[in-house]
Design brief:
The protein has helices at about 1-15, 30-40, 90-100, 130-150, and strands at about 25, 45-50, 55-60, 60-70, 75-85, 105-110, 115-120, 125-130. It is an alpha+beta fold and about 160 residues long. It has one domain: Yope Regulator, Chain: A (2-Layer Sandwich). The chain has a 6-stranded antiparallel β-sheet with strand order 2-3-4-5-7-6. A hairpin with a 2-residue loop joins strand 4 (about 60-70) and strand 5 (about 75-85). The protein is elongated and about 45 Å long. InterPro entries: Put_sensory_transdc_reg_YbjN. This is Putative bacterial sensory transduction regulator. It comes from Meiothermus luteus.
Length: about 160
């Protein structure tokens, strides 16, 4: 029994160390290389446009991926955001309706009155690679398409 407990403790410590993206590994930060590997694995087209900033193509629209709170090349926060230029943008009330009824994202009107939707994932205290993939999938397959429908945008 003691050996089993020690094995569990050692396994927990090994998993908590974090590191590069890999199935089942717990990470508390990602490098640009990690993010690029993950995007390739998920088949998401991307272009690096600056330090810790990428343009992705999801659901036919451009999505910005920002990496934030970076130290020594490892970043603790991933943000996915997409903005829409429209002839008739939604009202503030319509945007607020999104925020009242949806979880895991927020919407707002920028200084030009264009609608934006964004989601953040905090990695600091450890997440698995599956959690990061789930974050990408929820934004790609749920948040973005439903927001596009909510605001009446035609890509």
């Amino acid at each position: 029994m003691r050996i089993l407990i020690w094995a569990a403790v050692l396994l927990s410590l090994a998993l908590a160390q974090g590191g590069t993206i890999g199935t089942g590994r717990i990470v508390n930060g990602l490098t640009e290389r990690d993010v690029e590997t993950l995007l390739r694995q998920e088949g998401i087209p991307f272009e690096r446009v600056g330090n810790s900033k990428y343009h992705l193509r999801i659901a036919g629209v451009r999505v910005v991926l920002l990496m934030d709170r970076c130290q020594s090349g490892s970043c603790e926060i991933l943000t996915l955001a997409s903005g829409f230029t429209m002839d008739t943008p939604p009202s503030l009330e319509e945007v607020n309706e999104w925020n009242q009824n949806k979880r895991f994202s927020r919407a707002y009107l920028d200084s030009d009155g264009d609608p934006w939707v964004e989601s953040e994932l905090h990695l600091r205290f450890g997440v698995t690679s599956e959690t990061i993939r789930f974050f990408l999938a929820v934004f790609s397959k749920e948040t973005l398409p439903k927001f596009i429908e909510h605001i009446g945008f035609n890509p």
